[in-house]
């Protein structure tokens, strides 16, 4: 089995995340955000979650509980509540995406990208046949997984 190196897919620079944390730290113990994974490929994908720090999350609304071993059918998505702690500097997780029982890629995301006041987007062209379209802001982080279109 090939082991993939995680690709960091943060939308916001660390300085912007630090400013968001400072701006929101007095608005309660945690922030309710959502994470959505969209499968824009032609086959089902499986998600495995690792490297989650329990201190970053409030309760059971976290990626390793909401997305661990989840299968997302082609053309479908899964969205779940993710409660991030207000006074933590990150809320990161590593997701391994498999298709046909084979590891395709590994990404490292920071749920704080959902806290941007305005929606930000970023395309991530992976070294294999996949491309990610990442959108974050207004309390939702969306990762769309697609197959590259070859011309």
Summarize this structure as a short list of keywords or feature phrases.
151 residues, Immunoglobulin-like, 5-stranded mixed β-sheet, 2 helices
| CATH architectural name | Sandwich
Number of strands: 10
Outline: globular
The CATH C-level name is Mainly Beta
As residue ranges, the low-confidence spans are: none
CATH fold node name: Immunoglobulin-like
Based on helices, strands and strand pairing, what is the structural class?
Answer: mainly beta
Biggest sheet character = 5 strands, mixed
| Overall tally of structural domains | 1
Distance between the termini: 30 Å
Radius of gyration: 15 Å
Strand content: over 45%
Quaternary organisation: single chain
Which secondary structure elements does this structure contain, and how are they paired or packed?
Blueprint: E1 7-8, H1 14-24, E2 30-40, E3 45-50, H2 63-66, E4 70-72, E5 77-85, E6 92-99, E7 102-110, E8 120-125, E9 130-137, E10 140-147
Parallel strand pairs: 1-7, 2-10
Antiparallel strand pairs: 2-5, 3-4, 3-6, 6-7, 8-9, 9-10
